[in-house]
Specification:
Length: 366
């Protein structure tokens, strides 16, 4: 009996020793591998572009970004001090502006920042004003090649300093998506995850500010983030991206209204600074017959004219009616089922990078 107890004591002691060794080795010797990196936590680079999320109320009651970029960045950090529990992060300053004032210069700056830091981080979060967020998302979707990580744009409809702000929720969810197993350019806002090339701003004040055009959302936000099966996954292997910056800003967008004078556009053809025109036609892309002379002149000049629909949902099918088909024969390029934001940016990028392939780029899915 004593021998049995002795042997059983040895067995219990050995078990305890193995358990201790297992815990010790897990804590101190077994690294947690994340995408091949010996690191316990992923790393995110925040590209700071200003926007409502950091705005303050001025003496006259209007909202604007703080005068000091340091103050603006501190406001962003204060929105949720626990973001580092999701990922280690650093902030790189791009601009401290109302997004109404953004230009292709800032798009190029963002592109170079992502390129220069691509291998150092697992994902990117861009804090941005909502007014032109979909344009910036479109620009990144087009100009970045071989993307294998998430780039997530977000912001808020209500300034971050207000108790009722939507900033915290959007920022936290953007961070979560930036470390998930996805790749691509996305907008995270309210309950939606939208592919950057399909986003449009649909409301100036609703917290659910953005919609997808030409397809479904990439995911939804509930108690956790639900990603659709068709969304591309993160590229695990070591890789790099290519960027193709440059956007021609001198384009013109014209909305048809009943009785509008086609000479307005014919006169515009005399302005050699204008490199391309987008016409927001009726219905499936229909144009009044009175615009025939303009299209003939634009074709002679070699100036691309894109026709899209004024309808938020739907697409141009210009062969359906004679008032559409006639203009395709005169050189109109159909915009299909795409947002105005992506069409503008496609045209801007094509004119700068591939001016002989405008039609192909307009029809290409990014």
């Amino acid at each position: 009996m004593k021998g049995f107890l002795f042997n059983r004591g040895i067995i219990i002691t050995l078990k305890r020793s193995w358990i201790f060794l297992l815990i010790f080795s897990t804590l101190f010797f077994v690294p947690t591998l994340i995408d091949g990196k010996e690191n316990s936590k992923k790393k995110v680079l925040v590209l700071f572009c200003g926007g409502t999320i950091v705005m303050e109320e001025k003496a006259d009651g209007s909202l604007n970004v703080p005068d000091s970029k340091e103050t603006a960045i501190e406001i962003l950090k204060s929105i949720e001090p626990r973001l580092s529990s999701i990922a280690e992060y650093e902030i790189e300053f791009i601009a401290n502006i109302d997004s109404t004032n953004i230009t292709p210069k800032e798009w190029d700056k963002i592109l170079f920042a992502i390129k220069n830091n691509y291998k150092k981080y697992d994902g990117f979060v861009i804090t941005h004003g909502t007014d032109t967020m979909a344009y910036t998302a479109s620009a990144l979707s087009i100009a970045i090649k071989n993307l294998g990580k998430p780039i997530v744009l977000t912001g808020s409809q209500i300034p971050g300093y207000k108790i009722e702000t939507d900033a915290r929720r959007n920022l936290v969810n953007a961070f979560i998506l930036a470390v998930m197993d996805v790749s691509g350019v996305f907008i995270v806002f309210d309950e939606k995850i939208i592919l950057g090339s399909m986003a449009t701003k649909a409301s100036e004040s609703k917290l659910d500010a953005f919609e997808s055009v030409g397809g479904e959302d990439a995911g939804e936000i509930r108690a956790d983030l639900k990603i659709k099966d068709w969304v591309k996954r993160r590229v695990k292997e070591e890789h790099d991206i290519e960027i193709e910056p440059g956007f021609e800003p001198d384009i013109f967008v014209y909305t048809l209204t009943p009785g509008c004078d086609p000479y307005d556009l014919e006169f515009l053809l005399q302005n050699n600074r204008i490199k391309g025109i987008i016409i927001r036609g009726y219905g499936t892309g229909n144009i009044p017959y009175t615009f025939e002379n303009f299209f003939k002149k634009a074709k002679e000049k070699g100036l691309p004219v894109i026709v899209t629909t004024q309808c938020l949902h739907g697409k141009t099918i210009m062969s359906v009616y004679d008032v559409g088909k006639r203009f395709v024969e005169l050189g109109a390029i159909e915009g299909g089922e795409q947002s105005l934001e992506i069409l503008c940016v496609k045209l801007m990028w094509a004119l700068k990078n591939s001016p002989d392939e405008v039609k192909e780029i307009i029809n290409k899915k990014f």
